[in-house]
Amino acid sequence: MTVPDSLSVWLRVRREVDWRRSPALRRVPAGRDGFRSWCEGPVRRRDPMRAERLLAAHALAREDAARRAPLDFALLARWQREVLAVAEAPFRVGDAHAKEGRERYGLTPRTRADFDSCLDEATDPEIPPAARAARAYLDVAFFHPFADGNARAALLTLVHVLAREGVVLPEVGPLQTTRYADDPAGAADLAALIGVLNRRRR
């Protein structure tokens, strides 16, 4: 039995979500950086080297946000080389699978270009930043561009999109739950959760 193409499903769902209804975010003084705290806490306890690599990639993502670098696959690959400690992090060359094979992300001659087109929308001023960050996170998750480390790439992408707007979340743990390509309510809820985490900050 052929598993349906979850990437095609996501691209349809992506158009259905009313991203403009997402919450506004507050720019707040620098304080707790949830990504760094996550790396220094649970990630470091499990694997110190993994934590160091993520922190290095995080620094690059924040630098790229500060210099307003366009978000595209080449930028993500730059971070991913740090995450995986590899010389190259190419776009995948075949279908990808996740969730024990229950989701399949197809590959066509247009997939790479479609991915960059979606990432380019992360700076769309008509869409609230929480929605842009959530949508870019899910784009990475469901395009599944890398052979390994896509969940980490998605989280770094979310951090980067928010950093461009001067927003740093105080925690990222709640963001890391299983997401499904065919779930428009879940996609909208991710944007809402970003708003909740932003308001928790002191």
Q: Which regions are unreliable across 5 or more consecutive residues at pLDDT < 50?
A: none
**CA-atom Rg in angstroms:** 16 Å
Measured distance between first and last alpha carbons: 51 Å
What topology, given as strand order, has the largest sheet? 1-2
Q: By CATH's scheme, which homologous superfamily applies?
A: Fido-like domain
Work out the helicity level: 55-70%
Q: Which percent band covers the strand fraction?
A: under 5%
* Helix vs. strand class: mainly alpha
* Annotation field: number of helices: 8
What descriptive keywords fit this protein?
mainly alpha, Fic-like fold, 202 residues, 2 strands, two-stranded antiparallel sheet, 8 helices
Could you give the topology of this structure?
Blueprint: H1 6-16, H2 34-46, H3 48-66, H4 73-84, E1 96-98, E2 103-105, H5 111-120, H6 129-143, H7 150-164, H8 184-200
Antiparallel strand pairs: 1-2
Textual characterization of the structure:
The chain is built from eight helices and two strands; from the N terminus they run H-H-H-H-E-E-H-H-H-H. The protein has 202 residues and is mostly helical. It has a single domain (6-17, 30-200), classed as Fic-like fold, CATH 1.10.3290. The chain has a two-stranded antiparallel ribbon. Helix 1 (6-16) packs antiparallel against helix 6 and helix 3 (48-66) packs antiparallel against helix 4 (73-84). The mean pLDDT is 95.
Gist?
55% of the residues lie in helices and 3% in strands.
